[in-house]
Amino acid sequence: MKRRDLFAASLAAGIAGATRRRGWAATPEASAALGRTALHGTIPHLVPIRAHADQIMDIKVCLRPFRPAGPRMDVERVAGKTVVHNYGHGGSGWSLSWGAAHIAVGHAAATLERRVAVIGCGIIGLTSALTALRAGLDVTIYTRDLLPHTRSVRANGSWTPDSRIALTQQAGPEFAKTWEQMARYSWQTYRDYLGLPGNPIDFRDNYTLSDTPPDAADHAPTPTDPAKGNFATTGAPQSSAEFAEYASRISDIIPAPELLAGADNPFPVGYARRTPLMIYNFGAYGHLLLEEFHQAGGRIVIREFHSPADLADLPERVVINCPGYAARDWWNDKSLIPIRGQTSWLPPQPDAPYALEYKGAAMISKSDGVMIQGYDMYGLGEMDGVGNSFEHPDRAEAEKAIGIIEDLFTRFQPRNG
Amino acid sequence: MMSFSFPLRATALACVMACLPQTGGAWAQSYSTGHTGGRAGAAQPVSFSAEQVAHGAQIYAGACAMCHGADLDGGHDVPDLSTYFTARWANTPLDRLAGYIAHAMPLMAPGTLPPQDTAALVAFILHHNGATSATNAPLPMEEARLAKFRFPAPITQPPASGGKP
């Protein structure tokens, strides 16, 4: 679901209902579910976020492995091996990982081979390997890098199951069902990691903030310029409207937003809503998954592959292939489109465990740092970063995003008590 | 045409809950059951009729789909009836699968499927998993005759060559 659209829908529903204000456009269908106002007294005392550019301790850049037709999850024979592909999950790899692993390992298990190789140790490779172990297979991960160095860890680490996962047209209706299967399976698996020591998986109240009312122009979906064409005519996505949205398929299990009434709104903005957001604390979660993998008897071999023909050397006859964006190079998959994303990391603020979005910048206070990301600071919507493979930190962009959050808290007046 | 309908949500929930132990503890052992890794020996090529597959699809929609899903892909707490299922049952004599379905399924009303419906379900599951029928002769209902067939292993076994032992 596009954040801007949901925001508009929720505010329109709730505020229209509260004030009977006339003249607003008809609200989207989802609005009915979003009309609840947060119960008075349920907004906790919030400690301000110390968002200042001179607090930056890290800037991370990733390239989301986006495929217009959705992730590659087919099975093929290559170099004498049965290769089960599991890559190209766009901005939804963490969120869909367990569900994608469940499908991929099913294909591997159906070969009746006991020994399986997993290529890659990002979040897709690691969850595939663990899932294979749990299915009783003998698993060796072959990887160039381990988790702190993989692109996976350069994500923002929150539940975004349909973020740049596919283009609606190119993926087709069948993929929507596969997506739902993956999303539901992942969501349920993640619940098993909640409440553990170190909080590998956790929830944050995410506050979506706006100065302008929901029918203001800045909340309208990014307009489509017909002159630009679309993926079918140009070979590249040209507008936000082309990107698939599937979130409504699982709205029965995902906590809905609540509107904050004016007196309860602690932020210096006119409009706010609150949504529980699942997050992944990379450090705690990554180490836990690696521990589980080793404890269950998994092996890791550090190795780099340069061509599919390299697979012939492996002792295993079944390979689960999880190279992420690297598939563009060593599998020559030119359907992969890079979508650049950058996150800045400030020191952890365990006293301020919440998240917010404001003016195209997102902040999530996590156990390993305060993450700040400019996800849509230029009004491009889903097109932000599309086709951009510049995988180096952009300090100016980082400071701009931090500046948005800094400005918010400059005007923040913490309530007493 | 459907032999079963289970309108109560409570029974559907009971089905899901009762399925939990089957997958909840599936840490390591599930792959080792149901097959030995060897070929199916002297078993006959499996045969089932198109009519059985169609009938099985109807039985499935009424009695099984609410838990195992319309696409047989199960769920987080419900066993699938496709890839993992194939691994668990490959090379197993079909009388055991039919017997299991007959006495254990559907979970909220076990033992209620007549033999012709059970055989049709087996045919439907085989068909869904890519098994081809040697002839259009129907799958038999009697256990002794079913025992002569085995659940087909995947057709494309990886070759012995192509890797170090």
UniProtKB/TrEMBL annotation, chain A:
This is D-amino-acid oxidase. The lineage of its organism: Bacteria, Pseudomonadati, Pseudomonadota, Alphaproteobacteria, Acetobacterales. The keyword S-adenosyl-L-methionine does not apply. InterPro entries: D-amino_acid_oxidase_CS, DAO, FAD-dep_OxRdtase. Its cofactor is FAD. It comes from Acetobacter lambici. Keywords: FAD, Flavoprotein, Oxidoreductase. It catalyses: a D-alpha-amino acid + O2 + H2O = a 2-oxocarboxylate + H2O2 + NH4(+). Belongs to the DAMOX/DASOX family. Residues 205-235 are annotated as: Disordered. The keyword Oxidoreductase applies. Residues 211-227 have a biased composition (Low complexity). It comes from the Bacteria. Its EC number is 1.4.3.3. Residues 115-409 form the FAD dependent oxidoreductase domain.
TrEMBL record, chain B:
SUPFAM superfamilies: Cytochrome c (SSF46626). The keyword Metal-binding applies. Residues 1-28 form the signal peptide. Coiled coil: none annotated. Keywords: Heme, Iron, Metal-binding, Signal. The keyword Membrane does not apply. This is Cytochrome c.
